[in-house]
Specification:
Blueprint (H helix, E strand, L loop, with lengths): L3 H37 L1 H4 L7 E4 L4 H13 L4 E4 L5 H12 L8 E3 L2 E4 L2 E4 L3 H10 L27 E3 L2
Parallel strand pairs: 1-2
Antiparallel strand pairs: 1-4, 3-6, 4-5
């Protein structure tokens, strides 16, 4: 019979081998899930110039107004609810890319809109449509859609909805 420490070393080696297998499976699953998320959400994480992505909350009236304005103007959009899993991280990815390197913002004002390479906080319809048209897409001067209603005499909204960076 050999030294007593030999048995404990063998058990420790077996335990370490099991730990390595579990770690490998966890690492494989985590990277697979991240890759799947990036693939399934590539249109919102890495949007084309003509893609309008609206980030907000279902309960935010300003986001609802933006969506209604885009629909009325015939602008196609993708809506992303920041309360859903990983969507707020997508929004912060765009906000962080659009800000100065020394700007460490932790609040965002809704709606946050990504269009034509620009990320707009508290965006207004005219900005979004102008950037959408600059992307040279379906809405142009010869489009047969009815014009958007006039904003003349409209009362500006002063509501603010914010998201905290986590």
């Amino acid at each position: 019979m050999g030294p007593s420490w030999l048995g404990s070393a063998a058990r420790m080696h077996a335990g370490f081998a099991l730990f390595r297998k579990i770690y490998f499976v966890f690492l494989t699953l985590a990277t697979s899930m991240a890759g799947t998320h990036l693939f399934l959400n590539r249109d919102t994480i890495f949007p084309d110039a003509e893609t309008v992505v609206v980030y907000g909350r279902d309960s935010c009236s300003i986001t609802a107004l933006m969506i209604a304005d885009l629909e009325r103007s015939g602008v196609p959009y993708l809506y992303r609810n920041v309360d859903r899993f990983l969507v707020s991280h997508e929004m912060w990815y765009h906000l962080d890319r659009s800000k100065a390197p020394d700007d460490d913002a932790t609040l965002a004002e809704f709606p946050v809109v990504v269009v034509n390479g620009h990320t707009l906080e508290r965006a207004i319809q005219q900005q979004v449509i102008a950037l959408y048209r600059q992307a040279n897409v379906a809405i142009d001067e010869n489009d047969a859609r009815p014009p958007a209603p006039s904003q003349e005499g409209a009362i500006p909204l002063v509501l603010t909805h914010r998201a905290n960076k986590q």
